[in-house]
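Sample A.
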Amino acid sequence: MSRENKVIWSEGLFIKPAHFQQDGRYTESYVNKRCDSQHPYLWGFDELTLDRVLLQQGKIAIKSATGIMPDGTPFNIPEDDPAPAPLEIQEGALNEKAYLCLPLRSSETEVFFEHSESGMQRYNARSIEVNDVTSSTYDKTTLYVGSLRLSLLLENDSRSEYSCISVADLVECSKDKIIALNEDHIPPSINACQSPRLMSLMKNTLGLLQQRSKELSSRISASATGTGGVAEVEDFLSLQLINRYTQLIRHLTLLPTIHPEALYQHLLMLVGELSTFSDQRFMADVEPYRHDELHTAFAPLDQQLRDALSTLSTKKRSFSIPLKEPKYGIYRAPVNDPDLFDTATFIVAVKADLPTAELQQMFNNQAKVSAIETIRDIIMASLPGINLKLLPYNPRELPYHDGYIFYELDRSSNAWQSLKGSTGFAIHIAGNIPGIKLQFWAVQR
């Protein structure tokens, strides 16, 4: 026999309290099933406040709380339901969660009266007086109502007959009976806007997005060349992504309520899109959403988000190093920041009035690169200098250069050591290459 089937009301029915009880169970079950089909995680706290004073006395207590139990039962402490008795923690207790618990529905007696034997009843009966709102004389009627019989239990207590929500993660209870809680713990919630940890996560994410938006805007404005380089296009696409999610996250922070799973979904999409601009081009796997372990779900995602935004900010950047007019066939490229010798890749871009294959052959044979201070010794001794590695494509960090060929300076060359303490690079072109044009670029690694 199902305890949740609909009551059949018919003429001549001898009505007993059980009829109304069955009708109440049917209505509750109907509502729960309809809600559960729309969202799998419609349970948790809407608001929770612990008594911090009692934590200093070795007790965990709830001052106020609203929300929904996993079995679909709403609660409102202390307005509708009395707060559960404080849970006293034994000295030396370590690494246990405390739970708000409610006895599960059963076919046994569910109501506790003053004269009843205490057991697994769900409700405490109490009498109240209510007005007849349809009467002009405001007649009062005394009736019994039931408030939830909530209790606090520890993780290792027997909880198989309870519907439970974790309220706190106990780290330890000291000899002085002072309780230390894991402040990273996020109780299951139906409203991220009422969770201090999740609200802080949203605001911090918004701040990072706004900062990256300003950085990208300034970078694009400062380096816009109109040449449509891959790096420049990537900056525009990154800025488009950042601006889109900046407005979305700002909107979420202003809402009165948002479910944690919806927030997780938005952040997951943000990290996934940001991974497009990473070196790997894909997103590493993260912990799946766990409603009963929100910190486990959000902490790795938050770290990936920070890493992705940091990478976006410090991503490889290229900038041109001006070449001074050649003297005796030697071009000079002063490097004002000596750290670039260790942190950057250097590229020579070459163009001339020659077919590409012929230009490659002539430049390979006639060009030498070394430190400014050693270039003359390299030339006089006919030494090779820093090796030049021909690149088969226009480097993605550089603007598009039509008709140019590109060489990367080989950092493993012996001549690279001469750059220590140097003021820059020197490029010597022996002989004449018709219409030669040179550019020198540094790409931060």
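Sample B.
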Amino acid sequence: MEWHTHRFHEDARRRGFYDIIPDVPGEMNFTHMPSGVICGLHLHKQHTDYFAVAKGSILMRLLYEDGRPEEKFVVSEHTHQTIIIPPGVWHGYKALEPTVLVFYIDGKFNAADELRRPTKSEEWATEIK
């Protein structure tokens, strides 16, 4: 038996546990986010993200560099699917309720791999039908 100390970060937006499984090529992470928190649009030049909602729900946004229209969709604990976001796709999400997000990145975290894009809060509005 051995212990692995993973990275931990907490701020007003989220409480996160990062790189929780050692000796894998990427990072397995999970975060808890209060309702209304936005993880703004960002793009990875090299790595792929894999997202699954374990509890709660998020509004996910995808923007493409090649001119395809923006995608917005809700993912919840009832979706039972993993969202796979390849390199070069702008993406971000908003917690629609208290949410636990589980995600894997196929490489170790590298700040130089990530670009950020400013957005306005009204861009994260959800349509009620």
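B remarks: The first strand starts at residue 7 and ends at 10. The chain has a mean pLDDT of 92.
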